[in-house]
Amino acid sequence: MRKAFALFLCLAALTCAPLAHAQAITEAMAAAWQEAIDQAIEAHDSAAVGRLLADEVQIVGEAVADGVRQSFHLDKRTYIAALDQQWQTASTYTYRGEGRVIRLEGEQAVITGTVIESRTVGDLGTATTRTASTSTLI
Question: What is the pLDDT, as a whole number, of residue 2?
């Protein structure tokens, strides 16, 4: 349980196409998208998260649990289900991003930073994770 739980919680990268438009992505657009994602996660609103992610989104990362390192690759449906599962099983859950930097690279925006999540799950106690994150908006 602990390995599977950690696997879904430790996200390292999001690659998505949430902005359908003909113009180039601006720093303001990228910042607004990131703020909307943060607010949806803080509110435990998986439907809102889903609306902000492209259907083709790929979430890839690496998690370490009990000394075992595992890579993972989630599609949108699996990611949304994992969010719902963690919110349902955690008696407390907090989320925040820090140190975010937005870089414009051609027609893409790359957002890097750190995600801090804290959750309490039954008799497992409280766990806090700090995860480097990268989101690419295309």
Answer: 39
Do 33 and 52 touch, CB atoms closer than 8 A? yes
pLDDT tens-digit readout, 51-98 = 999 999 988 877 766 678 888 889 999 999 999 998 999 999 999 999
More confident residue, 11 or 57: 57
Its pTM stands at 0.77
Q: Strands, E, within the chain: which ranges? A: 13-16, 58-65, 68-75, 92-105, 108-121, 125-137
Cβ-contact 81, 39 below 8 angstroms: no
User: Counting beta carbons within 10 angstroms of the beta carbon of residue 53, is it exposed (0 to 12), middle (13 to 18) or buried (19 or more)?
Assistant: buried
How far from 138 is each of 21, 61, 67, CA to CA, in Å? 10, 19, 35
The dihedral built from the CA positions of residue 51, 56, 57 and 63, taken in this order, carries a sign that is positive
**How far, in Å, are 11, 69, 114 from residue 100 at the CA level?**
15, 26, 7
